[in-house]
């Protein structure tokens, strides 16, 4: 039995127009971060986020998604590090990614959650293009 998959692609030059992602979410955020200038260690003391989603079907779920996204973004920006096999990392085979999961790099934990974490949804402003898609 032949298990080979054959796929043919054709380029037509045709472009599509319109608004494929016609929803918008507006918001603002502020974080106060304490940094130890000797060690580089840091802790986010406060984080304040407000978003205009329009009418929320379930505000508790939306707030939970926003909190999770903040902590995930904190990990991406401040903790996770890609280590590839190169001249600086000779113990990794060339071109191979060593840090491919949470077993090989630090991800945020409960200790990384800000001391004061405030997330709110703007109320009374119907954002007609802001659907609860978070």
Automatic annotation (TrEMBL):
Entries under InterPro entries matching the protein: Ald_Oxase/xanthine_DH-like, AldOxase/xan_DH_MoCoBD2, AldOxase/xan_DH_Mopterin-bd_sf
Leader sequence residues: none
Species whose genome carries this gene: Salix purpurea (Purple osier willow)
Pfam families in UniProt: MoCoBD_2 (PF20256)
Name of the protein described by the UniProt record: Aldehyde oxidase/xanthine dehydrogenase second molybdopterin binding domain-containing protein
Domain of life of the native organism: Eukaryota
SUPFAM superfamilies for this protein: Molybdenum cofactor-binding domain (SSF56003)
GO molecular-function terms, A-Z: iron ion binding; oxidoreductase activity
Aldehyde oxidase/xanthine dehydrogenase second molybdopterin binding domain ranges (all copies): 12-114
PANTHER family on file: XANTHINE DEHYDROGENASE (PTHR45444)
């Amino acid at each position: 039995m032949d298990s080979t998959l054959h796929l043919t692609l054709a380029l037509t030059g045709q472009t599509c127009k319109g608004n494929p992602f016609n929803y918008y979410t507006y918001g603002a955020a502020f974080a106060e971060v304490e940094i130890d200038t000797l060690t580089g260690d840091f802790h986010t003391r406060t984080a304040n986020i407000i978003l205009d989603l329009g009418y929320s079907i379930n505000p508790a779920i939306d707030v939970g998604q926003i909190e999770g996204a903040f902590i995930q973004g904190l990990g991406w920006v401040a903790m996770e590090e890609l280590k590839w096999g190169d001249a600086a990392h000779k113990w990794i085979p060339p071109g191979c990614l060593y840090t491919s999961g949470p077993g090989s790099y630090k991800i945020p934990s409960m200790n990384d959650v800000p001391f004061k974490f405030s997330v709110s949804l703007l109320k009374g402003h119907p954002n007609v293009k802001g659907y609860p898609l978070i």
